[in-house]
Design a protein that fits this description.
- The chain has 434 residues and is an alpha+beta fold.
- It folds into 2 domains: 179 residues, Cytochrome Bc1 Complex, Chain A, domain 1; 216 residues, Metalloenzyme, LuxS/M16 peptidase-like (Cytochrome Bc1 Complex, Chain A, domain 1, 2-Layer Sandwich).
- It is built from 15 helices and 10 strands.
- Strands 5-10-6-9-8-7 form a 6-stranded mixed β-sheet, with helices on both faces. A 4-stranded antiparallel β-sheet has the order 2-3-1-4.
- The longest helix is centred in the N-terminal third of the chain and has 20 residues.
- The protein starts with a strand and ends in a 14-residue tail after the last helix.
Amino acid sequence: VLINSGSRHEAKYLSGISHFLEKLAFSSTAQFGSKDEILLTLEKHGGICDCQASRDTIMYAVSADAKGLDTVVNLLADVALQPRLSDEEIEMTRTAIRFELEDLNMRPDPEPLLTEMIHAAAYRDNTVGLNRFCPVENTDKIDRDVLHSYLRNYYTPDRMVLAGVGIEHERLVECAKKHLLGAEPAWGSGQSKDVDRSVAQYTGGIVKVEKDMSDVSLGPTPIPELTHIMIGLESCSFLEEDFIPFAVLNMMMGGGGSFSAGGPGKGMFTRLYLNVLNRHHWMYNATSYHHSYEDTGLLCIHASADPKQVREMVEIITREFILMAGAIGEVELERAKTQLKSMLMMNLESRPVIFEDVGRQVLATNTRKLPHELCALIGQVKSSDIKRVVTKMLHKKPAVAALGDLTDLPTYEHIQAALSSKDGRLPRMYRLFR
């Protein structure tokens, strides 16, 4: 079951509700007395369960033997619509969330933190810029009443999709009619009054966190102290036609860590490997990411290096952004397109990925584009398309996230000036001597 609900819808509520719901999933319900009962029921059909909340979707998923379809749909309907949310379960969730937040700040991998920061910078205080993790100060404030008032608005039939893979459509429809149609949720079935339909407002901006990164290593060999920078620009939503050229561009930039060594099969031909990691041995990471939602998108590059080289690292990344709008070799473009197609096909070998693909597409567009249709669209991308989308993107204000020792970080205005220039260089700093 996928539901159009997530941290982006929490503007009128306490931030962190989706994080709570994710942790509370598959606990006791009207039919099942405890989490153990749910797990035992699933075990009879060799099943496993999982719940994931993202910025715009929450997903309750079960993988089990097809013979247990009726039981599984009944269980999913109960978990999504009839959770008990007992005081004891909510208290345990509070503890789990506090622990997770502590862990998040101590991890050597800063990726989740940086992703939060770049979204907060790009969409300040609105929709996808709202925090995906529950802020510490809200852990005590969220209780059953708060959750119910949120669920009443967002867990409604028009915002839900039941998706299945490895099952006949008719059987799934029968089960949906039996267990979900007209089901009375635990919070009552009144009309949803307060649904937030606001559209993402891209603001651009900078979020900085000064943090001592000198002791993040786990074990005897110390990880060198690094400063992490992420620079992003607004791309487009996954409903727009430009989404495909952006996906090809993201593939063309590629990149990774400087220690993910390997031959050409590892994507060593992508620009961030060739132009950045191959030439600047002191850079530890340069990776391109593309986040896309139904009303906006964000293309960003994450780079990390020693704190003393932050200024140079920022300039290398801003130059890569400017070069995106330049000439694109035919071979380079074809390679990126082939790589994107093969990644798409390889991912769709696994059933959980197909399930998520079907569910998310239907939730957003009421239809599903089949893999061969997507491959045909990828095949049609020309270098002129990429140049067009990049030129449009470079007119936006940048979003910047910076984590670590930021003594040498250029100002936001300088980064913005570099992205508006012809060569991506930062303005020179003149020191005045007496």
